[in-house]
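From the pipeline queue, job 12 of 40. The input is one protein chain; the requested action is below.

Action: predict structure.
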Amino acid sequence: MKVGEELPPLEIAVTRTLIVAGAVASRDYQDVHHDAELAQQKGSPDIFMNILTTNGLVGRYVTDHFGPSAVLRKVAIRLGAPNYPGDTMVLSGTITALDDAGTAEVTVVGANGLGRHVTGTVTVSVPEGSA
């Protein structure tokens, strides 16, 4: 693990099931996350992913790379282009800081066909010998 190291990209198919299941699992019952007709009435071409699902996927991306003993300390993200059904989000990351205690800061970007869906940083602690 070193500053500048790039994490391998992760492709995530953005399906209706993923969008709806993520919204329900996070108790986000806003109609724009499960009802296409109501989403369209509100100006969106279709349902779209909520921030809590995106946050979970970003966390998964980082912990999948660093292993099961990794602990997320901070996830700070900002949404951009919506994730609509039928698209693919590609997550990529770079280690931007590392301390002697095994805590890393990872800059993460998730892009889809419309542009950047999510950008942010994740702080993760990795016990010695885990990464």
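Job complete. The mean pLDDT is 95.
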